[in-house]
């Protein structure tokens, strides 16, 4: 595509050089630049792309989009100056990859908890309806049945548009996408057209990046503010900020709730560790999920499917066939007779939801043992809160390591222990080795007890000093189970 055609997507301050060049690709990482590429110098949170313009040119970039023109421009390169490269890159990528979201219906799911479950269940449901469907999620991206590994909840704008472009080219009718607060704040979704947005809930998270809860909320709300009139906005009326999210949207607003009258109303009639009986809009359905938070997620899935034109009875039928997402309240039964639950819960609120759900199902018929840690180089303020909420809702807590990254595991554990009072401290152990922590929890368990192993869920690694070492909570459990005597 000619450079001048790509540049129609953005507002330009200055151009130095030939705008008629053919561009072979767009990159924001100078290491990936090839001959004929357009390099966009984005000022990121870690590094400033302007420092790598010379390297991009050396690798063959024929054009550069930047905020500050270089002091010594290369005469063979075209330089395009804009006010904000972070804002420009998404629009450039969308235009270069043929505006993929004009060819499929893109539904975004945002909130603190539940994004992966809702997006994945919608993907699975609409494939069962017979459509070709795309998924962009924390766990894995999919182009219909083809798995594309992922490193971020929401990819960078170029990866994102390339992925959506492939989905459109391969005939996908729908794409369901987790939309993180980082991607909204960093304008990674700029240029995309959403056919709908779903809000799950909002609680404290990512304050290492957003600094305040208000900034975090504003980032989430900006997604709904940007939806067009043709889109829908489906919000959780049970969350105190649910209606705040959609108060300025141009999209058509719908709501779902387990507590109040709304468009999509649900109620849990019976529950157990093998599933629930729910009432959804006065129809009963058995589902293979556990807990009120999952009941809320299923309501969002039901509502979105109905809004997208599916008959309620058909949606309920498929809802009853869907399985939980890996690492989301993933229950494993021990030969000794206790239950181990692996869950991605890594915020105070997510821990509260999962532990309250365990107690609702247990009804006092067994002990609850929680294995929990906190990620390194992330929001330190939530660490003592996570320990406190775990101790309040558990008979025993083992605080351990969870992706320490570049911090010392014991320092993170100490931050968590600081949130405990004397009574809480009596029921808490700290074991930095995660495998030993899980093994100890299993040794302490008796028939009828429940172990919650929180924080990592689907992840199959521990990130230590910049290296990802293989580690899978479920694998560790299965190994322990295989050696248990019963």
From TrEMBL:
Pathway: Cell wall biogenesis; peptidoglycan biosynthesis. Residues 23-96 form the Mur ligase N-terminal catalytic domain. Its cofactor is Mg(2+). It is an enzyme of class 6 (ligase). Gene3D superfamilies: Mur ligase, C-terminal domain (3.90.190.20), Mur-like, catalytic domain (3.40.1190.10), MurE/MurF, N-terminal domain (3.40.1390.10). Belongs to the MurCDEF family. MurE subfamily. This is UDP-N-acetylmuramoyl-L-alanyl-D-glutamate--2,6-diaminopimelate ligase.
């Amino acid at each position: 595509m000619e450079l001048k055609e790509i540049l129609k997507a953005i507002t330009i301050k200055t151009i130095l050089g030939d705008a008629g060049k053919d561009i072979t690709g767009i990159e924001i990482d100078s290491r990936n630049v090839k001959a004929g590429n357009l390099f966009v110098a984005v000022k990121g949170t870690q590094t400033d792309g302007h420092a790598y313009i010379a390297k991009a040119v050396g690798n063959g970039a024929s054009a550069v989009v930047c905020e500050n023109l270089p002091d010594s421009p290369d005469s063979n390169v075209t330089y395009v100056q804009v006010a904000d490269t972070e804002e420009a890159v998404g629009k450039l990528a969308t235009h270069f990859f043929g505006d993929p979201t004009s060819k499929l219906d893109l539904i975004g799911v945002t909130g603190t908890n539940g994004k992966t479950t809702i997006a994945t269940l919608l993907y699975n449901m609409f494939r069962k309806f017979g459509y070709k469907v795309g998924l962009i999620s924390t766990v894995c991206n999919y182009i219909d049945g083809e798995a594309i590994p992922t490193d971020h909840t929401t990819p960078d704008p170029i990866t994102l548009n390339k992925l959506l472009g492939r989905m459109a080219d391969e005939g996908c009718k729908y794409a369901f996408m987790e939309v993180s607060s980082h991607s909204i704040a960093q304008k990674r979704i700029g240029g995309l057209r959403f056919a709908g947005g779903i809000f799950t809930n909002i609680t404290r998270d990512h304050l290492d990046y957003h600094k305040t809860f208000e900034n975090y909320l504003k980032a989430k709300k900006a997604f709904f503010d940007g939806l067009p009139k043709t889109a829908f906005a489906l919000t959780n009326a049970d969350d105190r900020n649910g209606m705040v999210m959609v108060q300025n949207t141009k999209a058509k607003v719908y709501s779902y709730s387990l507590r109040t009258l709304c468009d999509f109303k649900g109620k849990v009639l019976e529950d157990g560790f093998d599933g629930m009986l729910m009432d959804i809009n006065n129809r009963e359905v058995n589902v293979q999920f556990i807990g009120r938070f999952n009941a809320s997620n299923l309501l969002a899935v039901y509502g979105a499917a109905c809004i997208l034109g599916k008959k309620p009875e058909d949606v309920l039928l498929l809802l009853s066939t869907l399985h939980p997402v890996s690492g989301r309240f993933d229950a494993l039964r021990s030969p000794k007779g206790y239950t181990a639950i692996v869950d991605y819960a890594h915020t105070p609120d997510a821990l509260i939801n999962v532990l309250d759900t365990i107690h609702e199902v247990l009804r006092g018929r067994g002990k609850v043992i929680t294995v929990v840690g906190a990620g390194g180089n992330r929001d330190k303020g939530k660490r003592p809160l996570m320990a406190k909420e775990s101790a309040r809702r558990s008979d025993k807590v083992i605080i351990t390591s969870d992706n320490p990254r570049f911090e010392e595991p014991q320092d993170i554990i100490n931050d968590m222990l600081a949130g405990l009072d004397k009574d809480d401290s009596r029921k808490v152990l700290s074991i930095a080795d995660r495998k030993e922590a899980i093994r100890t929890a299993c040794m302490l368990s008796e028939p009828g007890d429940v172990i919650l192993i929180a924080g990592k869920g689907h992840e199959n690694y521990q990130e230590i000093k910049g290296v990802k070492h293989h580690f899978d909570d479920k694998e560790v459990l299965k190994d322990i189970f295989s050696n248990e005597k019963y």
